[in-house]
Amino acid sequence: MADGRARLGSRFHFLGHVSEAEKWTLLKNPAIFVFPSLYEGFGIPVVEAYQAGCPVLLANNSSLTELAVDPHQLFASLSAAELKGRMEEVLAAASWVAPIITAGTASLSRYGWEKVAQDTAGVYRDVLGRC
After folding, report:
1. Where are the beta strands (DSSP E) in the chain?
2. Domain range summary for the chain, segments of one domain joined by +
3. Would you say domain 2-130 falls under CATH 3.40.50.2000?
4. Which of 5, 19, 67, 89 could disulfide-link 94, Cβ–Cβ 3.0 to 4.6 Å?
């Protein structure tokens, strides 16, 4: 972490551990939630950002693409120029921003624990039915 701080300087504030309450305060207040991960199994922070009503931008890779509700949210993970352009669009309140906030919030029903448990149980039933 110290190495990253040296490279980024005072432009960034490293929070360290935050409480659950602090996390929700952080998720509800930014202009944009950017998730530039190069690989994710599943993006729980993205679902939480949707729940907080924050506009979300996602790296166009791994499972993150499944969490996008609009193609405008996606940017090439290694393209700083593309990410910059998307961020500028969000900050300028492009016409697609408000609908992705609404659609992101509406998509939450796909990721509730009840739905995940049902889907997982279905996979086990399918596998056991083949044995």
Report:
1. 33-35, 56-59, 74-75
2. 2-130
3. yes
4. 89
